[in-house]
Amino acid sequence: MDRETPLPASDWVLRNTQPGRVERIEAWFGGHGYDPHRHDTYSIGRTLSGVQSFHYRKSLRHGLPGNTLVLHPDELHDGMAGTEAGFRYRMAYVDPALIQQVLGGEPLPYIAGGLSNDPRLYQASETFVQAMDHPLEALEEQDALFDLAMALRAVAGKPRGRKRLDYRAAERARDFILAHLHQGITLEMLEHASGRERWSLSRDFRVLYGTSPYRFVTLRRLDQFRALILDGFTLVDAALAAGFHDQAHMTRHFTRCYGVPPSRWLERLRTHGQLAGSYKRR
Hints:
Elements: E1 12-15, E2 23-29, E3 32-37, E4 42-50, E5 52-56, E6 59-63, E7 68-71, E8 77-81, E9 87-94, H1 96-103, E10 115-116, H2 119-124, H3 138-156, H4 167-179, H5 187-194, H6 198-209, H7 213-230, H8 235-241, H9 247-258, H10 262-271
Antiparallel strand pairs: 1-2, 2-9, 3-8, 4-7, 4-9, 5-6, 5-8, 7-10
């Protein structure tokens, strides 16, 4: 940054609250951003300025303007500024189920290293890393999801050595989870709902959606928790309403997923003066 562009006083996160199927953020961090954590989505992003450094699969990576960040679902990573100038970036969190609607039951594409210079991915992710004040029309988002799924598959290449997957059974299990989040879901219940033997189902679920059935349940409850605290619920009330045993139980899972505790997550949104809004996973 030059002398006429002062550094932001504190870290901030701007979150798109437009109804849609893909969550999008823009953020600036002057130093440490996030502790090691895991999402169950693809994290597709672009560094706008500075150096975005992160540990990923036991190596330190450096995202620069012009790269496309592609973090695979459920891969451990953190985030920090690579220089004293800080970094600014945009990120879209893409539900693997949206990619599967295009691929129709193939193993999720894997981009090695978490970074890509491939122009196909850069172009296919362009829609999702536009400025937050650019609303995505429903058809625009759907077209972009198709392009992104095709680019991920093309750049990753065809996986080898996989057994046949039962995509429809895994889809039935996913639908059952979404409809029964406030119950104590078991593999036996998922086996009955899907018609697939439980261990085969558990394996297929991981390959198709990037995470285990248990992690999927937990993160959907965290989605509900985030929506509730953005609507003004207290942390303890939101935790109980979303199906956690207590606030401490929720906080452990929240920090593992987002790299910061919920109070810090809210503080970063407020730092940028963003009004509360709801987000719902579809």
